[in-house]
Specification:
Elements lengths: L24 H17 L3 E3 L9 E4 L18 E12 L3 E5 L14 E5 L2 E7 L5 E7 H14 L17
Antiparallel strand pairs: 1-2, 2-3, 3-6, 4-5, 6-7
């Protein structure tokens, strides 16, 4: 059974490989494990490397164990994306506090990290069956999508920290 992988595990800083085989039992089992772990931990999303699998897959889902949605996760609809690509970033980057299931210190009060992200994105990817999917996301959903794509590129929110006078408010 898969479980959450925490930093500094090497898989979290590696570039994930594209998914080539769709609609397989392995892929469906991976998504089921990711959903179980995300729901148990209360996050808004999870990427395959966070459960030890180096493939380009993530899911967004803001529903908590009791079916409610935390106010900070508003705007997230369940979305499972294989081989995601951000086609276009729109708007001036906005600073927002983020946490990460793979960095437990960011999940406690006062532990979130400020990250600048585009407020709107246009994206594309594949469904679990290999069908082309895509769309536009705004606000927190756009932020969460960018956060998960970072995981697939081996980037953690701690990699966005700017020290000293360059730090953005």
């Amino acid at each position: 059974m898969r479980s959450i992988v925490t930093a500094p595990a090497a898989i979290l800083s590696a570039t994930a490989k594209p998914i080539e085989d769709f609609a397989t039992p392995w892929l469906y089992d991976l998504v089921a494990d990711m959903a179980r772990i995300r729901r148990a931990m209360g996050g808004a999303g999870i990427a395959a490397p966070q459960v030890g699998e180096g493939v380009r897959l993530f899911l967004l889902d803001a529903a908590q164990r009791d079916g409610t949605v935390l106010p900070r996760h508003a705007g997230i609809e369940r979305l499972v994306v294989a081989n995601p690509c951000i086609i276009h970033h729109e708007g001036e980057p906005v600073t927002g506090a983020e946490g990460c299931l793979s960095i437990p210190s960011t999940l406690v009060s006062g532990g979130r990290i400020d990250v600048r992200r585009s407020p709107r994105i246009v994206w594309r990817g594949s469904s679990l069956t290999g069908s082309a999917i895509g769309g536009t996301l705004d606000g927190f959903a756009a932020r969460a999508f960018q956060h998960e794509v970072d995981h697939l590129d081996g980037i953690l929110i701690t990699d966005h920290i700017v020290a000293g006078p360059e730090r953005q408010p």
